[in-house]
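Exercise 4. Each item below gives a protein and its sequence. For each, produce the structure-token representation.

Item: RagB/SusD family nutrient uptake outer membrane protein (Winogradskyella echinorum).
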Amino acid sequence: MKKNVFKFLMLSAVMSLTFSCEKDFINTEPQGGLITLDQLADAASVNPEIVAGTMDGVYTTTFTTGTGGTTGHDDFGHKGYDIFADMLSGDLALSLSTYGWYRASITELQCTQDFTYTDNYQVWRHYYRVVKNANIVIGTLGGTNAQPVVEESRYILGQALAMRAHSMFYLTQYMSRDYYPDAEILPIYDETTATGQPKSTTAEVYAFIENDLNIAIDLLDGYNRPTKTQVNKPVAQAILAYVLASKRNAWPEVAALTAEVMATNGATLMSAEEITGGFNNVATPGWFWGVDITLDIGLGLVSWWGQMDYFSYSYPAFGDSKSIDEGLYNAIPADDARKAQFYTTAGSLYLMPLDKFYDPARQPAGSGPMVNDYVYMRQAEMILLNAEALAKSGQDGPAREMLRTLMSQRVPDTSYLDGLSGTALQDEIYLQTRIELWAEGKSYLALKRNQGTVNRGSNHLSFQGVPMSYDDERLTFEIPEQEIQDNIFINEQNQ
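Answer:
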């Protein structure tokens, strides 16, 4: 108990340091009794639990409400931006809107064309807040290239580097239209930078991300994490695989990374029965990164479940329906086990995921608080990304067999795969990625990797049947007004 209280007090001090000044990246000379990074490093050298508590705070940021800087009911961390992205991809339809969340700003694509919209600020602030918190850990442990003698500190540094890279990667996806090496896209902040920085090029940002992940993978070798919340070596490798895949020029490396992740992460492919089991328990063998949501976390309506699950106390239960795109649903064969994830009777519940995501009590508009868990990564996505990488490396045979690994658990007959090769095989892998990972925050990444086109079905409230290329400016967020006001290096013209 005393240890937990001590960690909480130190974490509170660190979070105060972290959030005390929005214009400075790290408040290196805080006022009012706040601690400095040097003081924190000195304390951590005496008691490693201090920096461990700070690392816990990095993870907590990913699922805490308000980390996008607002009180909005769409502001609840990383999973909140999974919803943003899935809607931009067109695969997640807002099919009925009573309360207005996501309507104008996201689904009508207003925020992506107007930097004054708050949703731009939320995305920017959340991921840079994770970066900021990770930098405190990294700075406390001696910097990016440190080699801590204490094993625990070595593993914590690896986790912090991986989380910094993860957030920077998502910023590259949300804030830039494509991988243009020379295009200036984002400021880079490491543990040595305190104030606003100019934008770096895509190539420079990616080099920063990849360096973090390669170091993290080395540091995390041998780490046995206590829960699935923590990043271990396979998770860091999976993040790197997504990063390299988004460049579309390193497919053999992506294939090798995903193969190693599958072999070492301890996860299994979710069975046909498990994929209609609610996606609500981090102990699911098919998940290898996620969050155990507990009563102590205190989530309620403002949460992923509050925005997505009809069987929680939620917006879907009271008139804000989120459904699978009708065209995508129609592409699922009748004998595919995933077809059963969606409600097919006409009405307000049409094509909602009533049998994919749900509270186990199965009571419409069930009571809170939320204790159902968050999935960040699972084995199926590694299978699909591996198949994609093999196909795009010209290895059609191994790609077909990898895809068959998944499809044999979804359809009774996979012989149709035998006739697929080249572009047709790549298109099938992309389709199965969209179906399998629907509403799990991966469709937008796949859209960009595959240079796809959004074409919304008839159950969307706007832009039905309007083709939009993956690199359409309407599908990319703007640098927010607040950043332009605070950062002298960025203005409305060069954003």
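Check: The longest strand covers residues 92-96.
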